[in-house]
User: Fold these one by one.
Assistant:
Number 1:
Amino acid sequence: MSIVQKIGQTVMKKAAELAPDAWLPGGKPDPLIEHRPALIGAPESRLDGPQKVRGEARFAAEYALDGMVYAALFYSNVPKGRIASIDTSAAEASPGVVLVMTHRNAPPMKPMPLFMTQPKATGGNDLPIFQDDEIHWNGQPIALVLAQTQEQADYASSLILATYLAEPSVTSLSAAKAKGTTPGLFQGEPLKLEIGDAEAALLAAPHRVDSVYRTPRHNHNAIELHAATVFWSDDELTVHDASQGVAHTAWSIAQVFDLKEEQVHVKSPFVGGGFGGKTLWAHQILAAAASKLAGLPVRLVLSREGVYRVVGGRTTTEQRVALGAQSDGTFDALIHTGFVAMTAHNALPEPFILPARCTYAAGSFKLDVEVATVDMLANTFMRAPGESVGSFALESAVDELAEQIGIDPIELRIRNEPEKDPTTGRPHSSRNLVEAYRSGAEKFGWGERNSAPRSRQEGEWLVGMGCATATYPYHRMPGGAARMTLSKDGRVHVEIAAHEMGMGTSTAQTQVIAARLGLPMDHVTFAYGESSMPGMVLAGGSQQTASIGSTIIAANRALVTELLKLTSHDSPLHGLDPDDVIGRDGGLCKIDEPERFESYATLLGRTETGELTVEASAPPPLEAQHWSMHSFGAMFCEVRVNSVTGEVRISRFLGSFDCGRIINAKTAASQFQGGIIMGIGLALMEETQFDERNGRIMNPSLAEYHVPVHMDVPEIDILWTDIPDPHAPMGARGVGEIGITGTAAAIANAIYNACGKRVRDLPITLDKLID
Amino acid sequence: MNPFTYARAADVDDAVQLAAGSQAKYLGGGTNLVDLLRETLERPTALVDVTGLPSAIEERSDGSLLIGAAATNTAVAEHHSVRTRFPMLTRAISAGASAQIRNMATVGGNILQRTRCNYFYDHAGSRCNKRSPGQGCDAIEGANRNHAILGGSPSCVATHPSDMCVALVALGAVVHLQSTRGTRTLPLTDLHRLPETSPDQETFLKPGELITAVEIPALPFASDSTYRKVRDRASYAFALISVAAAIDVKDDIIQDVRLAFGGVAPKPWRAWNAEAALKGKPATLENFCVAAEAELSDASPLRDNGFKVALTNRTMVAVLDALVREKNGGSNP
């Protein structure tokens, strides 16, 4: 047992003494699992839908402030070196220009605290911003223009002239590898694991596959451009941001400007897509610095090109997967190793080995991510970092092995289904992948697949089917906290510094709060998206559902405790413990004697103010240290490959998921489908054109960087097991990222089945499929 | 965007007067020019809006079609005579851009749209002879998957992005021009220049010359013509390659044929060599392959676009084969 586990057990024991019957990590399951009010799982429409359709939901770039000026950025065009000269005189003389900021006149600022180095650190890199003349990547912003209008700022920025003293740079993965690699570290843990002698087991195995898979760089393309509208009043800074971490961002900006956390107010009620990219990058800092310098409110909206130059994306990977197996298919060896490009100023080595750690039983394991250092924009999190591209390689290799042995690929996976976590040895909290495959295969019609490639042709089109396993872990990060106010009219108001980026969080959590308190949804208001609210809840890692859910459990418990204190001898609830009662029909009742009921109106009538406010924090996330907690999915694809042109069209897709209990059937289905659509892009078209001669991104636009259009997306069928996870709040494990995992492999496997071509480097464009 | 003046032309005479003697650009739907203005790649001092100029589509007694240059792409694609007599043009236009863009874009503007070479667009970070003559070309040894395999030069390998023009050159379209010095006509095949040593010179238009109309001569066998576009996604992407084709077969012998390629060259590419190789020959797969080879034997693929040679070959052969089988009452895959 590790020290962490020992500490965990001690903390849990203490927590269990305080509240023996409540949901806790490792305690009893959340009562909402067993009682399951009708609202849990209901396909409620998004509560903010009408606001968004009417254009009433205001996004970060839509706040108009008195006297506001507009910013435009100017970017370097060399990957490494120093600024030799920067001539801003023409820009300064241009109409409407308020000021031009460079390293020569920017206020003193500290580097952003780098993501994951401290609890609230959320900076994309830890480089100086406008503090010196050094260039670290091609596209680094080196000047900012403020003007009365956006057009004036854009025009003036085009008049800036810079020259550089270029220094030798490393701008390709191969060149970087040649200079030597370092072991990848993810969240402080090495991305390296060996169990047994996998290389020897591979050589001894009667069946083996051993190939290298490559994935390119990807850029973030949320439909809402990154933006910050900022103003200072005295020493207080307000940032209207597009953020998936308001509390993190406020704290991190405070460090940059040497302020107290409370002096920075980050507000982000609506976000037009995050995917891991809406964290802290240079643009919020530059907007705040320029605003300080000018003494005016500033709006800085990155252009689409600006997002490619300033905001990191997913890095490139080169992955070896080798599987050694017996004739019955059982794995003797699972090897998943390889290289990622990263920079010297960030810390996200795309952890592509994560699926290999939890998906299959094997006699031996060898997993390793090595980092090669490239002079480029810092890479970052992008939907299912690690699992998205790692599952492409692993699940392609499993399909290759199935063909070699002559076993159905689903059967091969079932034969290697682990009884406990294959690399940690922890018991599964809830794992129903086989059930997901069974129901998915039946609905999809997997039985009609001919395992021989090129066996089905319709005109020019070769038709094939493929499948792959999706996987994403359950996360619940520390720091959940909530403020909850119940009033005697039976309305509850909850505040958490959480986020709505279009996923449906605010709707799903309103359902959860209503269900837990026994109130109708229209008596619940869920406020979120401001750093002044309680909690430190990152909208990342598919963890908001669990984080907010556990926080609501804690706040509700605090509330019920206070309500029960208000009961007099004649109250039917008098003397009951918080764990004896549940919320129902606008009040509390005893769980096993529902007639012992008192309404919130009656309970709160005993207070002077008629309302009660509590604040509470979620218990530490120890459940994941005791159980192996992962979601899984079975992905099925039917694809058509044109035998003349190599064009690929996906004709059917089905995802069958095991993600615990589903909170909202409508928004969850959209999350799964959205993930799968992003997975289609990953498989077939997304690729940052990175010019390896100088590290410049050459396709910084939605015209040239392809994501799927409607015609690329077929009907996507979604199933789920809805089997609750007894160790997760509400029994739910989160649904945001899993859809992108497994998808690319299911497509690649279907393409192989259609045309007999195995493509191991993404994206699978038609040139890789024609002779 | 750089400052410019704006004037809306009342008629063609007014337009050419307004544009005379300045660094003026004619503005059609603006679906390309406005992007280029925003990127500061175009810096005209004046814009002359010609969207109010003739846009009628006129069927003339000699069987030709005269299309006013201000006609929108949508209007042309949906016109009954175009759909029935020149279906390759309808298909080409419909394969381009999006419905919204086609509703804005004009015929004249489509012809004069500029390349989508990423190095051309990256004025802040890349060299481009088309944008800055003599600067050099970063595409030739760079990411050039989308670039030309035919007609390029050591100065430039950018492709012309239009779908519509590929059909128009196959149909032998003639462009009507006017300037303050008078009017003239020019076959569309002779309007665009190959880059040679001056890729910034993209057409043979004279200063101030305005495209007033496009004339499509009668071509009876074009009623079965087609256009096939191959691209990286199902919609809203420029052609990797495309083929416009019409074929007239009598007693299994090819009487006449029209072939043009898109996405492979700095201009819409009339496949004269392939056409010559086919005329008078039996309409067989083998002859289609020989003809494709005749056109593509001069191809000079670059690092990333070698696949275009085989792709153009295969697509041309498949398109001709499908047209012939369709005429013979066979099934069209």
Number 2:
Amino acid sequence: MRADENPRRNFLKGCVAAGGVAAASAVAPPVAARETRQRPPEALGLLFDATLCVGCKACVAACKQANENPAEFSTVDPLWDTPLDTSARTYNLIKMYRHGTMETKDAETNGYAFMKTSCMHCADPSCVSACPVSAMTKDAATGIVEYNPEACIGCRYCVAACPFGIPKYQYDSAYGKIGKCELCRHRTKDGHYSACAEVCPTGATLYGKTADLLAEAKRRLALKPGSIARFPRGNLSGGPDQSYEAYAGTYKQHVYGDTEYGGTQVLKLSAVDFEKVGMPYLPPEAAAAHSETLQHTLYGGLAMPVVVLGALTWAARRNVHRGGDSNGDGGSKEGEK
Amino acid sequence: MAHSQHLAAPVGGRLLNNATLVAGVLIAIMAAVLLARFIFGLGAVTHLNDGYPFGIWIVVDVVIGSAFACGGFSVAMLVYIFNRGEYHPLVRPALLASLFGYTLAGISVIIDLGRYVNFWHIYWPGYANINSVMFEVAVCITAYVAVMWIEFAPVFLEKFGLHDIRKKLDKALFVVVALGTLLPMMHQSSIGTLLVVMGTQVNPLWQTQMLPLIYLLTAISMGYGVVLFESCVAASGYRRKIETHLLDPMAKVMLGVLAAYLVVRFGDLLVRGALGEAFKPTFVALSFWVENFCFAAPFLLIGNAAARRNPAKLFLAGVAIMFGGVFLRLNGFLIGYDTGPGWNYFPSAPELLVTIGMFSIEVLGYIVITRTFPVLPREEAYIKAHA
């Protein structure tokens, strides 16, 4: 005789529990899907045009220098920086597509093509949604996806989440960091912009506001393949005119990054199928939106957990002690003494 | 009345034996590997890479280990929420296994974190990102570990005769029990949700908005499976009577949860039109069928009442459901996770030795605590021998 000795008190407690459940249900927000986010209006980014790229890799070297990253070797003699993929110390890389005899540039069969690999600066980045400690954030104005090692716990969920395999971790370090392109945001105060675009001799990598870059990309898609057109270089949204005349490529009629996962701030044009040059097919809804819809449907305002906890507490309140009043085989913890 | 109700009692016996000795050696090896990990980095002892940033320390020790540790939650729910007091003798041993499983999952996370000194950021406003599923999992697991130690505290309080504290704790125990049921429901489902943000990198067979429910239902049924397994092992290891009269009806509950799970699982695959993936001639598809065969096997093994009174079959059914859960989690996080060509992962020997060491801590802890503290149901044979 302990718990049930005062039935009135018990009843009141039951009422409180039930009241709590009802109140929590009342304040529970309506289940609303978290829509895929769009690029901020002043978003900054890059336009990479594979048909203009000559594979000189000046951008790879400039990126290393701008980010003070060491050379990485894949050859027997460690003579030149020869990374085979982006890493926590290689934020930008030109990869090559090869097929058959490799005779023709930008041809899918018996051809070759170049593709830039670096952070796409997604409108709705998976890495930002995944990061439990806000070490990966998206700047509200520029839309740059930024990394803060002082906040990072090194869980590598961003590495797992990114569909482009961009954030990378330093496994060879006792206290490693994540490394990824941040669009040279540390260089803007000196009047610089992304080093890869600054040094690109052909304008294959172009820097600017994503809105401007998207318009430029669509202009190129409308060009007659093989016709002579003007192509800007460097910074599309400011700076001196460095444009020059060149032949328009035979583009696939899609701007990669226009719609993928709600859009990215780095855009790409290619004459070879995007999946063949390593750019995965992605639906227009971001995985981050799906994930956060689930998370906030279940835990938004802690409404659902509070309701369930109320019900569980009510049930446990009855059963933990009721068992104690019965005999040993159905006993509660109290009955065991 | 107190004298007639000795439900749980220490098993007694020597703490140093072959089993504890082997566990001790394995734990020492683990310590050596971990020393190397903290001096030279994760890459020095693991095969982790940027294609597979989560290895077995996360997928086995945390994702699978915590699901194995759902026995305490599953049985406590049966006893205290659905008021099935007859299962009470199973609560303490199950809770003990859970306590170890979760505490070690927490430790595994720390050793896997690249920048472990910043660990507290996850709990700190300003750093914490409430949109992150990892945040939910981490906070919830931490809270649950604390709750479980409180839930289990009566065992220590009894042993040391701290009856006053024990009485005070008992008054609030229902809140602890309620929290101890809610928290695992939250994070076991969220462990499934962890995959959602990985998007198209996860094979459609394991990428669905139903992941929270799928992981929750399997965690609950794995909890019962682990209790079957653990009861049979404890009975044979300690030469005790097997609690078939409890395990039989509990196995029936387990089959019920499992049936609900299979309806949800295959219903979801059919609705999404993803089942075609399972018929492609790939290793991933084979792994899918192995997973689901393990989940279906308990119906063949203990589908009828006579079979459920057979300890060997109960044991096998428990093992089958545990393997089903193992494959579901391995498939989602590693086997069906494809981040692009050129990446592969298989754990290194030192990496495996750490996981083995973690399970050894569990075994050693279980033996030491059940021999010393009142956890397992009291056995007449033991009482006679020590009277």
Number 3:
Amino acid sequence: MSTLPSDVIEESERRWAYVVAAVIGLMFAVIIFTSVHWAAQPPSNVETIDASRLHLAGEFVEENLGTAVQPDGSVIVRVIAQQYSFVPSCMVVPAQTPVVFRVTSPDVVHGFLIMDTNVNSMVVPGFIAEIRTRFEKPKTHLMPCHEYCSVGHDGMWAHVKVVDRQEFTKSYGSQPRASCAG
Amino acid sequence: MQGSSRLVLAHFWAAFATFAVAIPLGAWQMLVRSPLHQWIAPELYYRAVTAHGTTFAYVFPTLIAMGFGYAVCAVSLGRPMRGLSLAWISFALVIVGAAMALATVAAGKANVLYTFYPPLLGSPYYYLGILVAVVGTWVWIGLMVWHVRRWKIDHPVLPIPLAMFATAVGALLWGWTSLGVGAEIAFLILPNAFGWTSTIDPGLARVLFSWTLHAIVYFWLIPAYIAFYVLLPQAADGRLYSDKMGRIAFLLLLIFSMPIGLHHLFVDPQIGAGFKFLHTVFTGMVVVPTLLTIFTICASLEIAGRLRGGRGPFGWIAALPWDRPFVLASGFSMVMLGLGGASGIINMSYVLNSTVHNTQWVTGHFHLIYGGAVVIMYFAIAYELWPRLTGRPLAAPKLVRLQLWTWSVGMLLVTLPWHLVGVMGQPRRMAYYDFSNPALASQGVWVTVSAIGGFVLVFSAALFIGVLLASHRGPTAAISPLKFSLAVNPPRRLPKSLNSFGIWAALVLALTLANYGYPLAQFAFLGKSAVPAFPVSQNDRR
Amino acid sequence: MTDVDQPRPRDPRFAIWIGVTAGLFVLALVVGFIWLPLAQRGADGLDLWSAICRAVGLPSGNARVSAPVAGQPASQVAWTTETRRRLAQGDASAGAAIAQACNNCHGVVGISADAIIPNLAGQSAAAIYKQLDDYKSGKRDPAVMGVYVSPLSDQNLLDLAAHYGLLPNPTGDTLSTQSSTSTVARRLIDVGAPLRGIAPCASCHGPAGVTPGAPGLRGQQRAYLELQMQLFKDGTRRNDISEQMRSVARQLTSEEIAMLAAHYSSIPDTGGR
């Protein structure tokens, strides 16, 4: 052991410390870079709502659920996640258009995940989850609930149908709140 | 172990008894959700998931950490443990609490999963059981801290032995982090379950749970890290590269593993993105102690390999005594830690998280780190301690190696496919998937692979229990007492910062306040987010 | 060995570590609360201050203040703490007196003699209360029931719900004589049809799980069940809050509805409660 005096050990540890600092620094740099230049960010919209009275009045009454086209051409999709379904159970959105999902729950915690995309959010009763995204290509995505919401959780799947913009205007443009449910 | 052998043995056997029940439950869950099995009514599935999760989150690792803590206390301080009756009271509390919680689960009254996110509500006895068990661990924390203090008073100049120093870090870390779930149960859930309050704020409950949810993993991990530092170098005929670096790593774990829990809530609506980024940064810092540990352990093993005649840049690896269970287990552990750590970096990333959040990827990640890297070290610790606790050599060394091999292979078979289907978007926590749908069909084969891995794990677990049982029946023999590895240059004196906890504990408090203060305080004025509870079972219906 | 008697070396670690931690914290604050919000304002056109507020999580930082929408609620009943508290205040003996008027159709013991009229015995009090209130407010077609319900006060409804909740469940001889062993029905009840958006019936209607206001179905009248599911399916009946039942019934075929009705009407409502 006499071949390894303390200063040799400490020197090697110092070199490793630089490596560690570089690894951590690189990780932060990548996170910040993608966040600034790709505007990739986790949802951030703290907004509360009275979960027990969603259906009585306000933004999440039945008539207001579904896809609403905004004056600027973007769409807002309002969704309720409840035991054990999403309403509407089939959402329709135009491709290549900014989409905002506003989702809340009248009962317990649910999850909002559109498969094959990065759309992913918790749905916490008492709060409105707001997720911004954009779908490039027409496709029907599966949308499971991804948080255990009691024993019917397994049956809680919905669909998100992304359609061509012209097709959207043609087939759904006349509905004030579009959906492909039933 | 100077009078505490029975205590340590009781903790380990209690832990492994719960393990022996919970492992087959896990394998059964993987079987029924795979294409190999018909769909089953989900209530039973969630009952099993709750039992599996509750055992492995709150009972099994806790008992291991406590038992190993007592062993370290007696061996490293070189004198008999005091306060044995308190230790037995603490043990009894954990057992009673665990039994209460698990009996409630078994009766189907608490299908809430181990994360029990309100406003989903199970029977109060489930939560009460967990609370009692947690309170039991606080007695252990007190005993560990008291022994360190007492030893320091008697030895004002000597460094606290590294193993005990690290055990105290684990105890302090758990004490601080268990307050989150403790407060959630005591102040939000139980008052509601007993009908004293009418609502629960689910956002607040999730933030409090996140306080515990991340650092609890490091509480599970610390016994494994202690084993790396104080048992592995010796098991490989080497010495610990640096005692100081070990202390720094454990202190960094103490500081950085707690105020980072919001990275579990990256896609939650009740937290602003600024705090999500803040916690990303500090989660990044918790990578540091693991990188330091990997360096120190690899260096220690290199010393061992070269002392055994290994040459060249990699020859020392081949020269290591891989036939020894402790060395073999550590090797597997490092591999799984590396893979699991890499997938963890995806989870903690502020931008990548949404790709994998709450998918099977996450389940894969924590099973690889905890079920793989950590639990295999629990096995190694048990193999190392058993002869010392029973006075009989370990039975069937070949089976021991087979056990470690099958555990690693099984765990990789389980978790790597989970990562894959997670990226494909498979949500976690489902009793069945409709693999007949074209969008899900390609996941079926991977779910099958992981189900097979589950049964490899059951085989390995049975081997493990079998070896331990057989060892009790073997002939007694003279067993060398347990010793901890010496450092290359054992410290004779240490600066205060590496031999005390006071200022570091204050730093943890300050950092917690800074990182959790506003996210918790905001619920005082956000308003109207509290909701009534939703009972999970039928009994509360009428 | 000599260093044992020397004073402990000065220890700069505390200062360095605390300094590094504090520095990291400040850096994270600047990036997380100023730089990233600035970069992420994107299409929202927030000013700097609003962007920072949003990053902190202050509700005032919300980009989108939504205008209230006029709607016709599916039901006036909401599962608030107040409703739950009041449900516990139903007086079953007062309810029994009021129920005299109901006995003709729903039976003296809450078991009806006509397959199109529902059994009420042992039914969830929350479910009965909600349906009575919906008849009263016209949210459920009041053609038959309206005349009976309209003179009743809210407390009367609660009392009735409590009364029927306490009557013994339908068992044995009161069941539909045609026993059903439909595997289709059992599958829908136990595991649902996930990708059609059908959760297991048992997860709301019991015995596996419970949701507020969901009635128990076992031992219910067959024709009544079939008709109600059909009404939900074609949207004629729409008093389920947020389409909780309509979204499921729309996905069911008429054959499945018939099989479910047959199955539920043939099993006694005894175990598992």
Number 4:
Amino acid sequence: NSSLVIAEHKDEQLVPITLNAITAAKKIGGDVTCLVAGKTVAPVVSELCKAEGIGKVLIAEDSVLEGTLPERVTSLVLACQKQFNFTHIFAGADAFGKSLIPRIGAKLDVSPISDILDIKSPDTFVRAIYAGNAITTIRAKDPVKVISVRGTCFEACPLVSTEAPTENAPQADLSWELTKWISQELSKSERPELTSAKTVVSGGRGLKSGDNFKLLYDLADKMGAAVGASRAAVDAGFVPNDLQVGQTGKIVAPELYIAVGISGAIQHLAGMKDSKTIVAINKDQEAPIFQVADLGLVADLFKAIPEMTEKIDQYLSK
Amino acid sequence: MAMRVLVGCKRVIDYAVKIRVKPDKTGVVTEGVKHSLNPFDEIAVEEAVRLKEKKLASEVIAVSCGPPPCQETLRTALAMGVDRGIHVEIGGKDYETLQPIHVSKILAKLAQEEKVDLIILGKQAIDDDANQTAQMTAAVLDWPQGVFASKIEKMDGTLKIQREVDGGVEYVEAKLPAVISSDLRLNEPRYATLPNIMKAKKKQIAKKSISDLGVDITPRVEVLTVEDPPVREAGAKVESVEELLTKLKDLGRI
């Protein structure tokens, strides 16, 4: 067996889910090769080379790879596949990997396996269906397995001091002109990134307005937490869509998840129920969120959250 | 020039139904369970119909692959304003093992037969949650893909697409013909009115078989088990903010 992991990066930094995907690839056994494609990749490569146990890093640096269009990256991956004949190709199951992995699968004429939770053997994988209301174990029959990985289900591969060697990726036709990457508008935030934060404070429709999210931001800032939201809060226009936690938004599994004014619709639970400790704060004691919460507080959030923000200093570990 | 648009319509268990896993672990119970048009496909249909209303599309064709009840799913799309339907009939064991790789080849074939300029599909189906068909259809046809679209704008032979990505939005331009997939915020689908539901009954649904299309639907994966997810037990209620913070500290979470 041998695996290729397609690295993801943003603002010239490695996106952490890549390290979770490497751990998944290592479970297959055999060599793990990583591919970094982009316009400016040197800082990403130097970080990635330190990932424990990887064999080598392939580099494709080209201005036409700005925005890493899946159409162009697919050509590159096909060229790598032609040269190295990997048995498995991995990427993280986020917007980047989900755009790219099926395109590669179709070009190789193999059925991709989306968003895996576990690996039972090199051809047997576990994934969630029906928004996590059922778990299926499948055996893939295709000779090459093309897979996206749920980041929260695999530990991040540690970074060590030894460095894996690098080489240039094989030549590929990157002349695709039918799609043009224009720009990205990423929300700027000083807070930790939602999918990798240790603590997440999420708000729902109970917050009643976007302005009221300030209550959560104040608490989150004291706790060093990321802020998330339910689909109801996003649909109501309280916060931008990139904060959405749920089946169709981001999947998170922090050490502590605090759900504030969130009723707990199935599709929201699908995005956070693997959190280690779940706290629910809701004034409706019948809210389904209490059925999954380790600690539930039936209270008016407009009183409870400011009180938490005020008192938390004396509880926080130094 | 106005576009010819193809939309995908998957029949899935209704989003409001609490699904049950079969005791023999081979799948979920589908008999006697309410089914509907996949919500993301409903958004795709709405977007196609809006293009037609803006005279940017000349014809909108809906496709559904599966057993006979898929015709009801197509009627939903026709009642929303789609012009005609194509039902690719696949039943029994063949349907159980049908995967996005097969559906993407079927859609690609139909897109060529119907000479369409744009394919709009839902970003994922709420049953298998695969999120693959649009990307794969684009790859089979060698067309541009604009997946997870939250806004599209047509300019001559190009679509400007706003895509939902991690941490914000991204803009790409795709030359037609192209494939896009709809994210939640692309639009809010309409409810079909009674007169339109009546009118939809008269619209044409063509029936096709897999052999008509010449697509190989040999199974690519074998389902070993389908099980209930691990149950998360509800914990304790606390009475006050202080009690909550004390417990969190004891657990080492803060």
